Amino acid sequence: MQPKFDWLLFDADHTLLDFDASEAHAFRSACTRMELEYQESWFPVYKNINRRLWQDLEQGRISSGELRLQRFQQFCDALPRDALSSDPDAHRFSACFLEELQNTAHLMEGAEEILRNLRPHFSLAIISNGIRETQHKRLERTGLKPLFQHIIVSEDAGAAKPDPAFFTHTFSLLGSPLNRERMLVIGDNLGSDILGANRAGLPSCWFNPGNAENPGTAKHDFEIQNLSQLAEIVFAE
């Protein structure tokens, strides 16, 4: 079998890393460190706030620093006053959460096996809208960081996917000459990963484990429901 691509550009969270599991653990632990009596109803409130702010980041409306602080400011503002014995420090809350998040990393099913199988045949890179220190430490904890030639994070790029500027930064790191037809973006998010690939002129593979429908906001070239299916796409018979 011959490789059809030179570079495989992987999104991190929800593609290779099980962010939902890590986020839930980190949020609960941060609440404990903030001496808050954690309630199960709090996490969905936080997730909704965080999701909206990440969308703002991807649209260039806020910076990663603003996201880190505002999500905890808004979460605390959303809680009933009787749930708090005092006004929590959003800066400290954010720091506690990021420390806990950095110390936990759960892989998506099949991620380690497929990456180790692909590495001898392709150059691999991470392209993430995450936070630099957090993503590097989480990847280190998985033991898979050495498999990637580059870990490219929006905080370093000065722009977030789907902004073409993120991919311009990516291309500058990968070197030249680059054949965009032989660079495949793999990610779960249509609005950032797949749309970003469209804008950068790159083929893309939508990781869609939930069998969601594509509303047409972005066009994917390939689709997989589990990571093991990637081998069928990246090799020519």
From TrEMBL:
Per the record, the domain of life is Bacteria
In its keyword annotation, does this UniProt entry include Hydrolase? Answer: yes
- What Enzyme Commission number(s) appear in the record? 3.1.3.5
Q: Which InterPro entries match?
A: HAD-like_sf, HAD-SF_hydro_IA, HAD-SF_hydro_IA_YjjG/PynA, HAD_sf, PGP-like_dom2, Pyrimidine_5'-ntase_YjjG
For this UniProt record, give its keywords in alphabetical order, as a comma-separated list.
Hydrolase
Pfam families hit by this protein = Hydrolase
A single Gene Ontology MF term assigned here is:
5'-nucleotidase activity
Signal peptide positions (record): none
**What's the name of the protein?**
5'-nucleotidase YjjG
